[in-house]
From TrEMBL:
Source organism (scientific name): Amycolatopsis bartoniae
Pathway membership: Alkaloid degradation; nicotine degradation
InterPro entries (UniProt xref): 2Fe-2S-bd (IPR002888), 2Fe-2S-bd_dom_sf (IPR036884), 2Fe-2S_ferredoxin-like_sf (IPR036010), 2Fe-2S_ferredoxin-type (IPR001041), Beta-grasp_dom_sf (IPR012675), Diverse_Oxidoreductases (IPR051452)
Molecular functions (GO terms): 2 iron, 2 sulfur cluster binding; metal ion binding; oxidoreductase activity
PANTHER family per the UniProt record, alphabetical: OXIDOREDUCTASE WITH IRON-SULFUR SUBUNIT
Listed transmembrane segments: none
Pfam families the UniProt entry points to: Fer2 (PF00111), Fer2_2 (PF01799)
The protein, known as: Carbon-monoxide dehydrogenase small subunit
Superkingdom, natural source: Bacteria
Length: 156
């Protein structure tokens, strides 16, 4: 079937099998490998992207379901010219990443969380990101990064 999705502002139209997952479409058809394949069971969140501005785990969405919609991946967040999105910058400054595998999904979930709640508490950040797993950081610096990106004072 023919699928046409606006990915990071560019239309990607490809013939795919009807069972193609959005995560595979993004990686294989759009050539965007920032969206990671972690578990294929919705457990880890490494594949989180924004679909029409809403956070989704792209391993649970068929490419056909995204046909005619808008997808933003971690590669599409930054405004360009080497500048980072505020959430990306906060993750870097607060050391909210270690191995980096969960980072793209964690950043995308954080962007969605901040769109819904621009000034979350630390507990709200933890609750909002509970579907995204990190095996390296212990989450403290990730929470700090989201708090910083929201413009609030970071507890040390």
């Amino acid at each position: 079937m023919k699928v046409s999705i606006e990915v990071n502002g560019e239309t990607v139209a490809e013939e795919v099998e009807d069972r193609t997952l959005l995560v595979h479409y993004l990686r294989e058809n759009a050539g965007l490998t920032g969206t990671n394949i972690g578990c294929d069971t919705t457990s880890c969140g490494a594949c989180t992207v924004l679909l029409d501005g809403e956070s989704v785990k792209s391993c649970t969405v068929l490419a056909a379901q995204a046909d005619g919609h808008r997808v933003t991946t971690v590669e599409g967040l930054a405004p360009g010219d080497g500048e980072l999105h505020p959430v990306q910058r906060a993750f870097r400054e607060q050391h909210g990443l270690q191995c980096g595998f969960c980072t793209p999904g964690m950043i995308m979930a954080s962007v969605s969380l901040l769109a819904e709640n621009p000034k979350p508490t630390r507990e709200q950040v933890r609750e909002g990101l509970e579907g995204n797993l990190c095996r390296c950081t212990g989450y403290h610096n990730i929470v700090n990064a989201v708090i910083e990106a929201s413009g609030q004072e970071v507890d040390r």
